[in-house]
Amino acid sequence: MTNKQLITTIFALILLIGFSGIAGAGDWKTADTDGFHLEWMVDGENLNVKVSTETEGWVAVGFNPSKKMKDANIIIGFVENGTVTIEDHFGNSQISHRSDIALGGSDDVSNKAGTEVNGVTELSFTIPMDSGEQDDRALMEGETYKVIFASNRKDKITAKHNRRSSTMITL
User: Fold this and answer.
1) Does residue 111 belong to any structural domain of this protein?
2) Are β-strands 83-93 and 96-99 bridged in parallel, bridged antiparallel, or unpaired?
3) pLDDT attached to residue 25
4) What is the arithmetic mean of pLDDT over 50-68?
5) N-term to C-term CA, the chain
6) Separation of alpha carbons 95 and 61, rounded Å
7) Considering only CA atoms, which of 151, 86, 74, 147 is closest in space to residue 114?
8) Secondary structure of 140-151 as H, E, C letters
9) CATH at residue 124
10) How far is CA 40 from its chain centroid?
11) pLDDT of 82
12) Residue 24 CB-density burial (10 A; 0-12 exposed, 13-18 middle, 19+ buried)
């Protein structure tokens, strides 16, 4: 391979990688409400999510409730001493939720990660658009859904929220 061919090949690869990154970066959508920040991106059959708020405790986001918390697919977690804990929950009534595992389902959350920096907790994760579980309501790209948020100052998932909010998003 000549130097000219090598340079042309490297330039083509740089362009390909650069344009791939730009296309992917544009797929993220955002919403802000009452101090909660949400980012999401549909990736085929999965929904990639980042949620953050000012707290040194837990933060939760719930998708598609029927009333208050009922029927929502709730993802709740916290970061303590650098260790990330994220659980998959279901809104089993208007005012309560339980882990999918406790309800006989499975934890469908993957790519679990999180940070706690300067009093802000951010969780990132991936959930299936349709887990196939009886309790999880399927989500569809292009549809609009209610999203609920909650947080607490404590790293204890069973502690009742001291802040909450909601918004509408289109996947």
Assistant:
1) yes
2) antiparallel
3) 47
4) 96
5) 47
6) 14
7) 86
8) CCCCEEEEEEEE
9) 2.60.40.1210
10) 7
11) 93
12) exposed
Residue 15 lies inside a defined structural domain of this protein: no
Rounded Cα distance between 53 and 119, Å, is: 9
Does any domain span residue 18? no
Confidence class for position 34, pLDDT limits 50, 70, 90? very high
On whether residue 14 sits in a domain, the answer given is no
Contact 98, 128 (CB under 8 A): no
- Alpha carbon distance 127, 44 (integer Å): 11
* Contact call for residues 50 and 59 (beta carbons, < 8 A): no
Q: Supply φ then ψ for residue 136, to 5 degrees.
A: -90, 125
Helix (H, G, I), strand (E, B) or coil at 5: helix
* Length in residues, the chain: 171
Whether the CB-CB separation of 139 and 147 falls below 8 Å is answered with: no
Distance between CA 19 and CA 148 in Å, rounded? 34
The helix (H) or strand (E) run that includes residue 34 is none
> In sequence order, what are the beta bridge partners of 123?
51, 114
What span, in angstroms and rounded, lies between the C-alpha atoms of 140 and 157? 28
On whether the CB atoms of residues 135 and 108 are closer than 8 A, the answer is no
In the predicted structure, residue 12 carries a pLDDT above the cut 70: no
The count of domains in the chain is 1
- Full residue range of the structural domain in which residue 153 is found: 29-170
